[in-house]
Amino acid sequence: MASLANVPYILGPPNTHHKPHNNINNNNNNNNFKSLCHHFPFHRNIWWVSATTVTPKRNSSTITCFAANKPSSSTEISSTTRIRSEVLTPFRSVRMFFYLAFIASGALGGFIATTQLIAALTNSSKTADIPEMLKGLGIDIGAVSLFAFLYYRENNAKNLQMARLSREESLSNLKLRVDQKRIIPVSSLRGIARLVICAGPASFILESFRLSEPFTESLLDRGVLVVPFPTDGSLPGFEIEENEETKEITTKRKRLWQLAPVYTSEWSKWLAEQKKLAGVPSESPVYLSLRLDGRVRGSGVGYPPWNAFVAQLPPVKGIWSGILDGMDGRVL
Fold it and tell me: How far apart, in whole angstroms, are the C-alpha atoms of residue 285 and residue 201?
């Protein structure tokens, strides 16, 4: 009796005739990670287009990632980023104002002391006042130097914070494809999922996919969703063996890897900035782990530490979900 041929599931190209829209409800953060599956049911996901006839006991499927291109946008710091910076450090502007005021005051005092010193040097009757003038000039120079250093350090911290917040805002505006009818920004998943971005060649993506298999259920319990981003232009295909015994785990595997980036130029630009700031070679495969609030909590070169994610991240549902919502790690 001839067996039926298995044809892989292929993740098809984006529908350019379909206008992307955003219909995720973020108003209730108590709709934890599993509500994502209600909003984005993977069993209707057009990415896995079945072109197969299945044997009664077993079939195999392939998931192929795809992305679309879009022209890059401006990287200017937005008003939203500036407001967030003010909220996070409300007294920084006040400190910087007083530093400038003290610098101006010290500079003025130093200028006056310098003129008096010059006059004393040219007038022998004021020679006795020179030590006192030198003392005052030294104090003024020291004050200007001190407050200039404090202002420089504060300004550097401000610039670093603005750059980080700007990158976070750019990340939140990047687009993800959930299914052929739904494209959403990364910000739509705040409070719902912890994204792990795997960026590298197709072989790196496939190996990351394989290494994540033993932790699939635990990662989903912690709200983790993976965003594979092939940097070499190759479209990786994920082989998933299906049969009646592994049907449940196969479903969870597809759910874990259901997202795909769109507008690759925007993703490539953002990743290049991250690598440059971290001093990582542009060709190195990397991973980035995001917190529930959408900020970067960890990154590194090489494969994602799936076991560490399971050990460090609290579940998104259960008795500890509300208490441990902020225990995602520090922001990088």
Answer: 7
Closest CA to 308 of 287, 322, 293: 287
Q: Alpha-carbon distance 251 to 274, whole Å?
A: 33
Q: How far apart are alpha carbons 280 and 83 in whole angstroms? A: 30
> What pLDDT shows up at residue 330?
52
3-state secondary structure 213-239: HHHHHHHHHCCEEEEEEECCCCCCEEE
Give the total residue count for the chain.
332
Residue 262: how many other CB atoms lie within 10 Å? 19
Please report the sign of the dihedral spanned by the C-alpha atoms of residue 162, residue 163, residue 166, residue 172: negative
DSSP state, residue 62: E
**DSSP tag of 91:** T
- pTM of the entire predicted model: 0.61
Bridge pairing between strands 194-200 and 286-290: antiparallel
Distance CA 84, CA 57 (A): 55
Strand pairing partners for 175? Answer: 185, 262
- Least confident interval from 18-22, 124-128, 190-194, 203-207: 18-22
Q: What's the rounded Cα separation, in Å, for the pair 184 and 261? A: 10
User: Please, are residues 216 and 185 in contact by the beta-carbon 8 Å criterion?
Assistant: no
For strand 260-262 and strand 286-290, is the pairing parallel, antiparallel, or unpaired? Answer: unpaired
Distance CA 242, CA 210 (A): 15
Distance CA 216, CA 145 (A): 56
